Amino acid sequence: MTGSAPRDPIAAAAAWSRAGHRVALATVIETAGSAPRLAGAQLAVRADGAFAGSVSGGCIEGAVVTEAQAVIARGAPKTMEFGISDAMAWEVGLACGGRLTLRIEPWTSPEKRSLLDRLESARTAARPVVLASALDHDEDAAALLFPEAGKAVFAGRDLSETVREVLRRDRPRLVAVAGWRVFLNVFNPPLRLVIVGAVHIAQMLVPMAAALGYAVSVVDPRTAFATAARFPGVRLVHDWPDEYLKTERPDARTAVVTLTHDPKLDDAALVEALGSNAFYIGSLGSRKTHRARIERLRAAGFGEAALARIHAPVGLAIGAESPGEIALAILAEITAVLRADDERS
Questions:
Q1: Lowest-confidence range among 2-11, 223-232, 319-328?
Q2: Distance CA 167, CA 144 (A)
Q3: Within this chain, do residues 197 and 176 fall inside the same structural domain, yes or no?
Q4: Cβ atoms within 10 A of the Cβ of 177, count?
Q5: Could you tell me which residues are beta bridge partners of residue 104?
Q6: Are residue 176 and residue 201 in the same domain, yes or no?
Q7: What's residue 180's pLDDT?
Q8: Alpha-carbon distance 70 to 104, whole Å?
Q9: Do 158 and 136 form a contact (C-beta atoms < 8 A)?
Q10: Cβ-based neighbours of 142, under 8 Å, separated by 6 or more
């Protein structure tokens, strides 16, 4: 990538398009074997060869950029398959190879440029959206499908249920619609992590979670703890945790972790988290501490099913001792819970 363009492929493509550049998007639509990137991964390519994003982690980017430039020049999309050998993968620091099927499309027509702007606007506004692209049709056979806007219709077919499912699972899907192969690419808002307690473990957990794409908030009314010096570049909230969680309601893409050891803060946060759709709720403390916590929450009216949602002692049992190791265990457990549906499917 050249210059200071954004690394995110959609943001880069939208910015380049608005600046008058011709762009193409390469999208992984299918994988086989131990492919280095999942379906839905994208590479934005400018006519002059500048690029952003990744479809293989480095194995085939050069070839894809060249093909994308040809696609821009022709004005017609192209579907390609690449095989990535184990040896080739190792050369760029990957563990294994596999096969990738890519769709390379020019986003140069007025319709596609408008669609790109609307996609970027939806992502900026944190609106979940699915981009439907017909692979057996011309370049403009694409549409944005919003689950909250009533029916999600493409090519005259109601795809609402499928759109909700791919968004819930956060996994793209190739489907048949009106005789076409249609790729449904998912653009969910970032996962969120709410950390209650600006403690040492939080200092370790924040950068780990941010590196995985989480939008992280650290909530602690103790201003001596929650400082910019201790948490540079992090969203710090000095409200009481329950007040914050009432306003910023956790949804099915939110994890909540309490780390203070102070029932005034942790219990209040847990009460709100248990009343939400948070996909993960974890709380620091020993088994003895957690038993006492459970009794307090039970007395507050929570039943056994609700109390079982709390992961405590927080984190996978990996023998973690240091703050960094505990943070690693927490993030590993969050990931395991998040991907549990994928393992069962």
A1: 2-11
A2: 13
A3: no
A4: 16
A5: 26, 78
A6: no
A7: 87
A8: 10
A9: no
A10: 112, 115, 131, 132, 133, 134
Domain-embedded: residue 331: yes
Residues 241 and 175 in one domain: no
What are the residues whose beta carbons fall under 8 Å from the beta carbon of 113, sequence distance 6 or more?
A: 17, 107
CB 201 within 8 A of CB 136: no
Q: Which residue has the tokens 């948070």?
A: 278
What is the residue range of 79's domain? Answer: 9-109
Q: Which two tokens stand for residue 21?
A: 């550049």
The single-letter code of the amino acid at 213 is G
> What's the whole-model pTM score?
0.81
CA dihedral in degrees (237, 241, 242, 245; nearest 10)?
50
Q: Can you give the CATH number for the domain in which 214 is found?
A: 3.40.50.720
Rounded Cα distance between 3 and 24, Å, is 18
Say what the alpha-carbon torsion angle 3, 9, 13, 15 is, to the nearest 10 degrees.
-60
* Cα four-point dihedral sign 144, 149, 154, 159: positive
Identify whether residues 13 and 99 lie together within a single domain: yes
In 246-278, which positions are buried (b, 16+ CB within 10 angstroms) versus exposed (e)? eebebeebbbbbbbbeeeebbbbbbbbbbebeb
Burial class (CB in 10 A: 0-12, 13-18, 19+), 152: buried
- Cis check for the bond before 77: say yes or no (omega within 30 of 0): no
Residues 81-114 have pLDDT tens digits of: 887 665 555 454 444 556 788 999 999 999 999 9
Q: How many domains would you assign to the chain?
A: 3
Q: In the predicted model, is pLDDT for residue 294 greater than 60?
A: yes
Of 187, 207, 232, which residue sits at a domain end? Answer: 187
Distances (CA, A) of 15 to 46, 69, 167, 284: 11, 18, 25, 43
